[in-house]
Amino acid sequence: MKRGFVALAAVLAVVALPAAADAGRSCVSGVVVAKQAQRGTFAVVGRRGAVQTVHGRLSRVHLGDRVRAAGSRLADGTVRASTTQVVGHVRSATVRGVVISRNAERTLVAAGRSVNDQSARSGDDQPAGGDDNSQGDDDQGDESGDG
Predict the structure, then answer these.
(1) In whole angstroms, what is the distance from residue 69 CA to residue 82 CA?
(2) pLDDT (tens digit, 9 = 90+) per residue, 10-66?
(3) Structure pTM?
(4) What is the second-level CATH architecture of the domain 25-119?
(5) Which DSSP state fits 68?
(6) What torsion do the CA atoms of 57, 61, 62, 66 make, to the nearest 10 degrees?
(7) 30 to each of 4, 48, 67, 78, 130, how far by Cα in Å?
(8) Paired strand residues for 80
(9) Helix (H, G, I), strand (E, B) or coil at 21
């Protein structure tokens, strides 16, 4: 009886060990929409607009990069990335969050356990936020000013 119990415990330990090793692993993929150098984090928005905060090397990622990061999930719900891979670049992304403050220069959005500054300026290195109240470039032909 004891041998059967020991054998059963050994089999269960062998089966459960790999599952326990991957329990804290997490993979995040999406577009980088914000970086916070003070915290050493960047915000990644997924396909459906949900934001996740990732702790990782900020020098490897830029705003608008499509990334895949793998690492361990921390107690606060963020991810500490052990590997970060840039797989592409986009010009725009949709962010689902709560607008905390808004003025002519910037919009503060709370999403993914962090507050991100979605600036009103639009450059090639910054993806436009997916704000429902944002306006498109309706006056593209009026740049000369004499028309």
Answers:
(1) 7
(2) 555 555 544 444 457 889 999 999 999 999 999 999 999 999 999 999 988 999 999
(3) 0.64
(4) Beta Barrel (2.40)
(5) E
(6) -140
(7) 49, 10, 6, 15, 14
(8) 55, 72
(9) helix
Task: Provide the residue count of the chain.
Answer: 147
Token pair listed for 49: 């607009």
d(CA 7, CA 15): 12
> Which amino acid does the sequence have at 79?
V
Picking from 81, 43, 47, 88, the residue whose alpha carbon sits closest to that of residue 65 is 88
The label of the residue with tokens 């997924």 reads 46
C-alpha to C-alpha distances, 94 to 21, 60, 98, nearest whole angstrom: 34, 22, 13
Take residue 15 and report the two structure tokens written for it.
């089966």
Scanning the structure block, which residue is given the tokens 């300026």?
121
